[in-house]
Amino acid sequence: MEYSTIEELINLASENEMTVSEIVIQSEIEESEKSRDEVLKRMRETFEVMKEAVEEGKNKQEKSPSGLSGGDAHRLSNFDDFLGDNIYKKVMTYAVATSEVNASMGKIVAGPTAGSSGIVPAVLLAVGEKINADDEEIIKALFTASGLGMVVSKKATLAGAAGGCQAECGVGSAMAAGAAVELAGGKPEMVANAFALALKNLLGLVCDPVAGLVEVPCVKRNGFSASHALTAANMALAEVGSVIPADEVVEAMTQIGNLMPGSLKETAMGGLAATETGLKIAEELDE
Q1: How confident is the model at residue 195, as a pLDDT?
Q2: What phi and psi values does residue 207 have, to the nearest 5 degrees?
Q3: DSSP H helical segments within the chain, as ranges?
Q4: Beta bridge partners of 265
Q5: Domain ranges (residues) in the chain
Q6: Residue 83: its pLDDT value, please?
Q7: 204: left (phi > 0), else alpha (psi -120 to 50), else beta?
């Protein structure tokens, strides 16, 4: 069950009449030489950490050590949303919650990175609650996200320092979109379309952390990226396809990352970090 591209992953699932997650599980069993139970147990443990981070963040009102973040997930959770108690409110809340736990040096799952750690759990938990999926179904969807992310890690980059935030929040959103499609019962090709739709519409996203900290704009960016993933998943489930195939979107991301100046790749030398307020915050924190 070897694959090195998203196209190969999707073809394996379609040809074998399996889900994408099952192909990833089989591949992990072969590569790790562990039993199926051991592989699933590890993902269950990962999922528990994700759930705990969301719950901690939702209830956390304290500021982070820098004072730049904290309490926003609690505000979102208790906000009487004018659109009603919908899935978008949940996904924003859960994503910000995890990101705030990360900013406070709490325990999170860095998937695909610490700076984008809120997106995948937020989307899968919110979608799971919406469709009444059990933990085992969500855990399998996490394998789908993992398989998609693994391709990017091997073919491109997941580091903001190399590719900008398109490689972190962009890829995280794409992984979440693809996994959400499978969780909702979508076909393998829909998984690929969701991934491509999410990533291609976040291409060019820069990494410009104020004061070099993974807080501004990172925490709220997780909330926006998670919401973006829901939009991509909905489109794909409605059989809206991506004109540009997923693997080519990843290639485009790489090219854009190479063209992006160093000032916009996690150096805190450009973008929001270089604004008057951003520079003032950095100066105050240095003191």
Answers
A1: 99
A2: -110, 105
A3: 6-15, 20-32, 36-59, 72-78, 87-103, 119-131, 135-155, 160-163, 169-183, 188-200, 218-237, 246-259, 276-286
A4: 207
A5: 6-286
A6: 74
A7: left
Residues of the chain with pLDDT under 70: 85
Tokens 């090195």 — which residue?
4
Q: Give tens-digit pLDDT for 133-173.
A: 999 999 999 999 999 999 999 999 999 999 999 999 999 99
Query: What does the DSSP assignment read for 189-231?
Result: HHHHHHHHHHHHTTTT--B--GGG-S-TTHHHHHHHHHHHHHH
Q: Residue 4 corresponds to which tokens in the numbers above?
A: 């090195």
Q: Which amino acid is at 225?
A: S
The answer to whether the beta carbons of residues 151 and 250 sit under 8 Å apart is yes
CA distance 38 to 41: 5
Q: Answer yes or no: pTM beyond 0.85.
A: yes
Q: Angle at the Cα of 77 (from 75 to 81), degrees rounded to 5?
A: 90
Report the percent of the chain where pLDDT is more than 90. Answer: 97
CA 281 to mean position of chain CA atoms: 27
CA distance readout (Å), 25 to 28, 40, 238 = 5, 8, 27
pLDDT of residue 111: 96
What is the four-CA torsion angle of 221, 74, 127, 29, rounded to 10 degrees?
A: 70
First to last CA, the chain: 54
